[in-house]
């Protein structure tokens, strides 16, 4: 018995798999590669462009001391954000980073044009914000074009102002006496204020006590009047009851006397009827 012959695969069955693989490969090719923010290489500067120079701190982990904890990725990302924003907002502009600078300064994020400072992180101690700094660059270029003084854009004025240390000087004898007098006056004023508050509190408590006594006396008087009124009502009620009772007893006595008289009057009549003469 011969084994069953295998049917040859048709071309239509293999094509869908091949098409799926090709589609997957094309999709993978369409995905843009992940952006390498640490790549700070510059493209050739186009002619007739407004070049904005950036000096950005690099190689933070390798070249800095162990106590300098810089995030190199933060510097690089911020530069790329500035590059996109500046070139989109300012026509015919081009940004370069660390151009003709072999070793950038530690912690630098400097923005310059024609060797004139627009923003300096070293002077201000602060990272620049993208949107307001782009507007700052626009104003700088307009002022430079119109021949205005652009020295004010240097960020030396943006240094953090620290409160100067006050040197304590020893007071003179007159100043010491005056200080003690002022302190004594303050203490005296505090004492007088406390005394005034104490008296006010005592007066308030005395008024409250008198008011309580008045209310208690009034309540006692009302209670006594109500008790006297009730006692009078009870007395009158008892007198009325005694009077009614006396009248009832008197009435009963009169009725008993009348009954007795009637009984005595009936006896002679009965005797008279019993003694009639015989005919």
UniProtKB/TrEMBL annotation:
Q: Please note every region of biased composition (Basic and acidic residues).
A: 1-20, 189-255
Q: Which UniProt keywords apply?
A: Redox-active center
Keyword Cytoplasm appears in the UniProt entry: no
Indicate yes or no for the key word Hydrolase: no
What's one Pfam family here?
Answer: Rdx
| Region annotation (Disordered) ranges | 1-42, 189-279
Coiled coil: which residue ranges?
A: none
Name of this chain's protein: Uncharacterized protein
